Amino acid sequence: MRQSHLFTGTRREAPKDEVAKNASLLIRAGFIDKLHAGVYSYLSLGLIVFKKIENIIREEVNKVGGQEILMPSLHPKENWLKTGRWDSMTDLYKVADSSGRENALAPTHEETVVPLVKSFVQSYKDLPLSVYQFQNKFRMELRAKSGILRAREFVMKDMYSFHTDENDMHNFYETMADVYRKIFDRVGIGHITYKTYASGGSFSKFSHEFQMVTDAGEDTIYICDECSIAINDEIIEVQKVCPVCGKDKFRKEKAIEVGNIFELKNKFTEPFDFKFKDSDGKDKIIQMGCYGIGLGRVMGAVVEASSDSLGIIWPDSIAPFKLHLIDLSGKKGGEEAKKKAEEIYTKLTEKGVSVLYDDRNSTAGEKFSDSDLIGIPKRIIVSQRGLEEGRLEIKDRKTGEVKMITEKELFEMF
Amino acid sequence: MRQSHLFTGTRREAPKDEVAKNASLLIRAGFIDKLHAGVYSYLSLGLIVFKKIENIIREEVNKVGGQEILMPSLHPKENWLKTGRWDSMTDLYKVADSSGRENALAPTHEETVVPLVKSFVQSYKDLPLSVYQFQNKFRMELRAKSGILRAREFVMKDMYSFHTDENDMHNFYETMADVYRKIFDRVGIGHITYKTYASGGSFSKFSHEFQMVTDAGEDTIYICDECSIAINDEIIEVQKVCPVCGKDKFRKEKAIEVGNIFELKNKFTEPFDFKFKDSDGKDKIIQMGCYGIGLGRVMGAVVEASSDSLGIIWPDSIAPFKLHLIDLSGKKGGEEAKKKAEEIYTKLTEKGVSVLYDDRNSTAGEKFSDSDLIGIPKRIIVSQRGLEEGRLEIKDRKTGEVKMITEKELFEMF
Description:
The structure is a homodimer of 414-residue chains. Chain A is an alpha+beta fold and 414 residues long. The first copy, chain A, has two domains: 3-308, BirA Bifunctional Protein, domain 2, CATH 3.30.930; 321-413, Rossmann fold, CATH 3.40.50. Chain A is 30% helix and 29% strand. Chain A has helices spanning 21-28, 44-63, 77-83, 85-88, 110-118, 166-186, 233-239, 295-305, 335-350, 364-374, 384-388, 407-413; strands at residues 32-36, 39-42, 67-68, 74-76, 93-96, 102-105, 129-138, 153-163, 193-198, 207-213, 219-224, 229-232, 251-265, 275-277, 283-285, 287-294, 307-308, 311-312, 323-327, 355-358, 378-382, 392-396, 402-405. A five-stranded mixed beta barrel of chain A has the order 9-10-13-11-12. In chain A, helix 1 packs across helix 8 (295-305), helix 2 packs antiparallel against helix 6 and helix 2 (44-63) packs across helix 8 (295-305). Chain A starts with 20 loop residues before the first helix and ends with a helix.
């Protein structure tokens, strides 16, 4: 993509009311825009990253049989009365039409997915099954201060699984824990993300959440480096040792939850009387699990985890582009370099390499600082002086390492 | 995809309160589910069709330089007060949080996109530009009776273009009319969709809408078959002749609007004081256009236009699968046919052909009626008797034409 074609640009400053590092950097780099507190737009570059995260999640959940659907946001009040959450959920947005009919603006989709799946399931032969979607969620956060880590409106991958018994539910729950492990590895935060033991497990003693270590985190976790797991506040108060190895050596860190997996059991199937006919001919209640990842939260977490004083440092897997090609031909006498930059851009694009090409009439300083802020993994500089030596400069955004390479070497690398 | 893996199935009947043909067929065939009046879920098969429509639209608008973004649904009241639509738009959902702060639940996005684009545009050099998104819209339809043709919540491709002057705006408007022509051709309704002249053109005498001929339509259009255009009620009353050829021979039809293009001029840029510095150094107001297509409406319109008494007949371009492979091996003695069906499914899948494979233990009658209802363009039947003759049966859903072909011929076709 030609940078001159992008309608967005970088900004010197984020809005004054934006205190979160993730949103500040993403706004300054032109990935997102703040509409009002806790509500953001994804701009061209941001949407590319967003879709890459979405595709990684989709690939991994499809592998374990997830079926993608799309459920609506306007839910009838009756479904929420059935589960008791119309009154109990404090961050639920309620919206009425002019005839007085009330709707919940969905913060999660159990109230919709249970009656939907119920309408198709009769017998044990129809189970297990799991469905998921990428859909907006609305949560009434009164003090939204964490940028896209905790928004009032955000897209979530929410998955729901349905089982004949608790054992099958629990096995799938463990499968999903592995799926989440892979997803966090692939988006580049696996090394700082811990399966964290929490209280309130409905099947085993523990429930689990995935926590990423970051100063921006709202939670505190205690990491057992021996086992690469963590426990949360509640657990450490009760048992004081690692539930895996039994040792009591922990590293205390601030962290943010980047994914959750729940054994819901019959919590939502019971209110909707969702039963199936088992192989013994008896009607039994369905067991259910649910599994959530917020896409914006993952994106924000990556930025919290991977940036420096100059800007964002994207992991390869979700970077908006593989290469940032910079035309440094300057205003005068750089015709040859300009021509060469265009030629390289065309060739790379034809080869299918994703390139952001800075073809703008800006100063070298502006181009470099924008490039650092945007954070594409590799930068190629085409300058008149380099060309005279038959060389291009390639720089690694993360390590800062600079090499001079020939054009031939460039096309061998990409 | 194996049909046995789908958690959905066909239904004998649509909900009793569902009067629209499009929703009835799509619900019975397992493409969508009705949550409540005017609000639907897209199920596995429906979401595949939905994404195909989305991709066709994306490809065509990208060709004319559209930049994809994603704006939120929760809009601050202030933006809607600025344009006057907080009070004037009767189908606007309003939602307040517990602190009393009010939001509009976006039925369209001018109130968001104008201040967003304004923050990046200073001079004539930044123009023209166009941005678009695929995003939920919410409209308070009190009597939602047209299925997915007119829903209370629906995904729309909404595009907004920004220009230095009316002439540039008008040229892009004409470009978008051509883009819409291509989109409707590609989704299979081009031959019954007419660019329809309406009153209230802000630049020329006319505005235009794209109307598809259907008995389910709410509008009446007058088609000039000579010019392949139409005029609406208002126009025929005023001028009684075709605005293109001047003749007065019309075919009167019921129709539904499947796409709209508007010359907004300064209607929304003025309230936000969105100006640019022109090449003459003067600050001028930006001219704007907008262009909408509802994805569900297109899907519903295709179903209204293309079905028979047995079910849906999908056009190739947006069919959920290219082929419906039916294993008709039966319960006994069909081992060879079963094995052959599995083998053909594997081979086609490896070749990248999209196949729905009916591997269920159902009767031939059930499989055939489900297949007719689902409406995949070609059906391949693998039966024991056919195999003994070395033949497979291939049936065209639209024409009903049946041919006996060899396996070799099948793999030459797909």
